[in-house]
Structures are given as C-alpha cells and as structure tokens.
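Researcher: Hi, I'm a grad student and pretty new to this. My advisor asked me to get structures for two proteins we've been looking at. I'm not sure of the right format, so I'll just paste the first sequence and hope you can take it from there.
Model: That works fine. Here's the first sequence with its structure tokens right after it:
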Amino acid sequence: MVRNASLALALSALAIAAPVSASAHPESAGEPSRPLVIAHRGASGERPEHTLAAYELAIDQGADYVEPDLVVTKDLVLVARHENELSGTTDVASREEFEHLRREKTIDGRRVAGWFAEDFTLAELRTLRVRERVGNIRPANTAFNGLYQVPTFAEIVRLVRAKEAETGRTIGLYPELKHPTFLLEAEGIDMVDLMLRELRDLGIAPDAALYIQSFEVGTLRRLDQRSDFKLVQLIHPEGGPVDEPDMRYAEMVSASGLAEVAQYADGIGPWLGYVLDPDTMQPTGLVERARSEGLTVHPWTLRTENGFLPAALQGEGGPASDGRYDALWRAAIASGADGFFVDNVREFVELVETR
C-alpha cells in the first residue's frame, strides 16, 4: 500500500473516567460538530508525555479524550508509560539504587535492555522522576524534567473526574494496553484481568466515555468476550500482531480484514498513511470501508514539528521547529475520520473550530 518510501517514513513518524451513565461519545446529543480530539499521551507537545500535567493541560486545551499507555508494576498496579522499559522516560538510569534491576528481555521478538516497570513495586516506581522522551525535538519540554512522578491509572481517573466537575464537560479516556501477550507469557501478568478489575473498582461502566485499544488481536477478542467496553484495533504500518504471526496489519484495512475486525472491535486506530495516500495526500477510502462495517476510525498521530512531517511540508529550522503541519492536518480532517490522536491539542482545536 505504501509506495513513496521517504514520505511513508515521515508519515509513520507523525506517529475514564466518566460518569457511569456517560455515552461513548462526549458529544452524545446528535452528531459531533468536529472530529474527536484524542490527546495522545496528554498534551505531549508541551509537557513530558504520560504525566498528570500533560493530561490536565490537554483537557484545559479542549481535548475530548486523553490517552494513557498502560504498563503494570510488580505489585500489579496499572501505570502510564509509553513502554514498560523505563529509561527512555524516567531518570532510572541515573539511580544507583536500582542498578540491580537492570535486565535484558525479549519483548515481542525484540531484545531490549534496561529497567522494566514490571520489576518495580509501585513504591519504588514512585521514587523515579519523569523526563522528556524526545528532547531533541521538544527541547522546551526538558525544562520539566524531574518534576513529575509516574501516574497510576486510578490517579488519571481521579484527575479526569475532577476536571469534569470543574468544567461540566464529559472527558473520555482512551487507554492502550502495552505488550499484553509478553506480560502474560513471560511474566504471568494478565492485563485483561487487571484492566477489567480496575474499571469495575473505579465504577466505570461499559457505556462510559471509554475506548480500550491494543495492537494485539487476542487481547481485544478476550475483552470482547468478557465485557461490553468499546474496543479499538490499532493498525501499524509494518508487520502484524505479535499474537497472530500469520496476520499482517496491511490486510486489516482491506474489505475482508475490516469485516473480521468488526467481529470483535468497535473501531480502528490506523497509522495515518492508511487513511491518506502517501503520494497525493488524498483519502484512500479506508474511512468509508470501515464505516460500512460499523467501525469508527481514529488515525494517529498529528504533530507540528518538522521532525515528524513529510519533507515537502517541513519549514525552516531544524527538527524541533514547526513546519506546515496545517496542510497535512486539513487533508487528514478532509478524509472524514471520526477523530484523531494529536500531540498538539491547542493547535488542532483551533484549526477544527475555525475552518
């Protein structure tokens, strides 16, 4: 499907709490007036990702949903990190007291060295401090390094509920379960059980403003069998689900692939290059094909910086400077997708509300 390699690589880099009676969509009265704004790891263009500060800023800027990637601690607490390996997003590598926890693990077929959330108790993890993951592209965010702890999922829920009470808005949550097959097979940790138990304990019902997402098929099928929460199949530009070695992600966006996804999921979260043709920036027809199967479409990820934009849309300055992102964003909106994962919430909200 992806023919223009350089543009495709650039596009790939563009890579709840709600009242129990809340609907799946914060704008439940009729059709939404604009695509859903899903704050990708919070307002991660302006604060280190997966921090309470990033989530709160995203909500203040108008996000409909905030998206935490969930990993798990040794004592089985769900916490928000981009990956279960912690050295890219915390100061763990500088903490001598945790040197004994350094490990090498094979995760989804890839050998990874570092410190892993599942080897830390929550108390140990709370002594770490968060740092910006892509400081070369977001140097301003490094000013916040060391200020924040790793939040638990329950804390994010409490934050969302507090902001709902403050604003009168319904604010959705869009958690992703990270590496559930690895955690189950290698560590004996069942993230499906943990997720469903946590939602029950927090009083979050299936009709809440909540989507659960995963790149893995079996995880979503188990969630579908055991609950009525809304589920989203994430679709990567390369490879296939780690738990389905004979399946390719590219096959999921075909008519037959979408029909199969619709048997267990309510929507898809595709890489943006599946929605916009990499050569022409015109819609590929995926949105219409998915809708014919009753699936919502939430592509990822819209960002402003040159380092995440196709070469043709990059502006002056280095990778940290903003490019002509609005051209790509307008093309994405024109595809008719139901919502978008965005790092720069303020800019996206301004664009969709003034177009």
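Researcher: Oh nice, that was easy. Here's the second one.
Model: And its structure:
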Amino acid sequence: MSNFDEALERFQQVDLEYSGGLANHGPMGAEALLSLGHQAKIPALVDLYAPRLPPLPGGHFLTPSVREAARGGGGQRGDWVVTFETIVVEQDWREVIAREVPPLLPGLFAGAGHGLLRVAHAVRALEREDNAIRRREIAHGLAYWSSRFQTLPGAPGSRASEAAVELGEAIQHWPLVGDVGGRSGYFFHLAEGLSGWSPFVDAIDSLVLPEPGSVEAFLGRLCGCAASLYVDHPTDRIAYVHALTIPNAVRALLPYLSPEEGVVAAGHAMQAVGALHSIFGDRSSRPEEDEEVLRVAGDWDEIRYHAACSIQEHSIKMVEACWREDRLTADSIFRRAAADAALKIGGRGEAAQC
C-alpha cells in the first residue's frame, strides 16, 4: 500500500470535520502532495493533521426518499458516510459521480466548498489508480458535500442580458460588503450574511454563463481572476485560496458531467467565488512587495518544494491548483500566487475559518 493510500485510510477513520465546522483537509492535502511530486511528505502531514480530528460517528443507510430532506446543516455525517460507502461498493464510481454530483451543484459552497474539493481530489486519485480505499474517499467527499449542503443567494445567469460582460471586468466591479468587522468566523456562516443582499443577487443573476463548449475556458479565466484577487488581498489569503481551488476542482468533475451540467457547475463556481469576494474584497488592498516571493515565483520546482515543506494544507492545495492551471494556460499570475502561498501561508491559526 502506498503512503498516500495509508493516509486516506487513516483520514477515513476520523470525522469529516472538527471544532464545529472546520473541514478535514487531510485527504485533500495528501492528494495535492502526491500531485506535486512530494509524496514523501505525506506521512508528516498525517502525523501533524490527524490528531486534531475526532473519530467518525456511526450511522445508518439513508434511503433515497429521505436524502434530499437530510441535506445541509452539518448533521448526520455518519449516516451520509454509510450511505455513500454502500453505494460506491455496489456501483462504478464514475456512474456514482455522474448521478450524485448534479443534484449537489446548487449547494456547491458546502463547507466552504470542501465537499466539492474532497470529491475532486478523490476523482483525481482514482484516475491514477482504482482501488477500494480511493473509491471510499469518493463516498466521504459526497457525504461531506451532502451534510454541509449550502445554497447561496441568487440564480446564476437567470437574468443575463445579451450584452456579455468580460469576466475580469465583472470581478473588477463586483459588489463588496466592505465590513471589515464582519469577516471573522467560519466562511459558510459569513456567506449566510449575503442572504437578501440585492447587489450580490443582482450580480449573480446577471452573470453570463458560458456555452457548453467553453466551460473549460470560463473556469480557466475564473481561476486567473481568483489568483489575481489572492495576490491583491494579502490579509485574507485563506479566503482567496478557496476562490481559486473551487473552480479548479470543478474542472476535475467535468468529464463525468453532461455539457449542460458543466454550465450549471461553472455558474455555481462563479457564485462561490463571488460570495467570497463580496465578503472579503477591499478595493484599497494592494499586493505585498516581497523580493523572496518574486524570486521564488520564477521556479516551479522551488515553489513546490517550499509548499511541501510547509506541511500546511492550504499552502499545499493552493500551489498544486496554481501549478495545474499554469500548465493548462501559462500565466505569471499563477506562479506569483503560488510562490506567495508557499512562503506566506504557514501559521496554523490561518485555517480557522474553513
């Protein structure tokens, strides 16, 4: 058994979250280290991260008739795990993704996006090698997504005009709450404060969704915008890590969705990015000028090494997502954001909102 599979097995024995709402990042961090080529660091991540997580609660199988009503709120995590573990044992994991993900897309912000993220990392692991442990990781990701299912205000693209606005311009003029004092707490709780806020709803409803054949390009542009926002907001790095990793994760699921479902997924990814930016955005914020970050940004090998050595889950995940995006569409903003994440995200307290 590889040290990656050993890590998954260890993290599957513990709860999907801890401390009342902090997601179990362990499996995602381990898969990102594998992708970065630093799987030797996985045992260190397990040793550092696993002790904070309580045991996984027991549960029972949820019948299809009760699942929709049971979604959301963070409860019944043990029931959801038992339910999806049973399903992935009995069925092909690709069919499970194709059937179970589309109904969850409106609640893509579940656990600040970590249900989606855990599923996406599991899918990438299964594409490398199909085994029982990695299939079970799909179950745990879907369980967390279902347990924390959370919709955001607005209906993406429902009132879009024919005059399309370029994505970067839309982000530049995105409505911001501007309440610095209201940025403390779990991200999914902060997002509840957007309910009924008409500027956000109007922006989401007016969003022009991509055509089915251009979803990949749309997600790439969205990741580029998120990387720029990350660099521009050094006081809120963790929030903007998620603004990039959420659309990046949607990419991993596109092969298992229909073209129309891909459009829906892209719209909800933009909705999640928009929610984070509305909460944390500050038009007066500026990038940190750090010569070491700029130097490291010139070498992906060094960026990846610093992230792996940090043993910090958000640093590792951000660097891996930026590296993946940069290989798809080369852009210096991904190297700049990744170098910053590799060197600047290191304090354990920075993970306290997700």
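Researcher: Is there anything I should tell my advisor about the second?
Model: You could mention this: The longest strand covers residues 17-18.
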